[in-house]
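Comment thread on ticket #2218

A.B. wrote:
> Attaching the input chain for the structure job we discussed in standup.
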Amino acid sequence: RYYWNKRTEEGLQKSIEYFEQAIREEPNSAAIYAAVADSYALLASYGVLPPAYAMPKAKTAALRALGTDDALAQAHASLGFVYSFYDWDWRGAEREYQRAIELNPGYATARHWYSGCLRALGRLGEALAEIKRAQELDPLSLAIGRDLGRTYQSSRQFDKAIEQYRKVLELDPNFPSGYVHLGMAYEDKLMYREALEAFQKARALPGGNPLTTGALGHCYAVSGN
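C.D. wrote:
> Ran it. Output below, let me know if you need it in another format.
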C-alpha cells in the first residue's frame, strides 16, 4: 500500500509485485485480492497500462475478493471504481461505494473514489463533502489532496484549486500528478505560461506517464503553439 499510494508508474508496478507475492503466500485473502484490484485499476487510470488490459484484471480480482468476503469494504470500493471509470455503470458504482462506506465509514479510499464518481456526475456539492471527509480521514494522502483540488476546479473555483494543488506539492514536490492538475487549473485561467511550466515539471520527474505528455500537447495547442 505504501508503493500504491505513491501514485507513480514505478510505485504501482512495485505494489503489484508485492501483492502478487502475498497472494502466493495467502491465496484465500480477500483483502489482498482487493489490493490487486486497486493496483490494476490505477495502472489503467494513470495511463500506465491500457484500460482494456488492466481494468478486466481489476474487476476479476475485486469479484474474487467479494466472493471470499462480501463484507469487505475495500472490495466493494474496488468494484465501484471499475464500474464508474471503465464500465460507466454509475448506478452500480454508487451502490458499491455506499456499501463500502456503510461497512467501514472510516475507509478514506471509498469516500475518495465515491467523490470522483459524484464529480463525474456533476453532483459537485456531494462530491466536495465526500472528498473533504476523505481528507479528514487521511490528511497526508497526496491523491486525496489533489482530488480536493480537482473538485474545486470542476466547480470553477480555479484559485482555490491552485491553492490546494500547491499544498499537495508542499507535501511532496516530486508528485507528477500534482503538477499536471496544477497545469490544468492554470490552463483553465488562460495562464498558459504557468500551465506549461507545470506540465514540463511533471514531465521531467520520474514516474510520469502518457497523460502528462498529452496534457502538455493540449496546452501547446490551446495557447496557439
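A.B. wrote:
> Thanks. Noting for the ticket: The mean pLDDT is 95.
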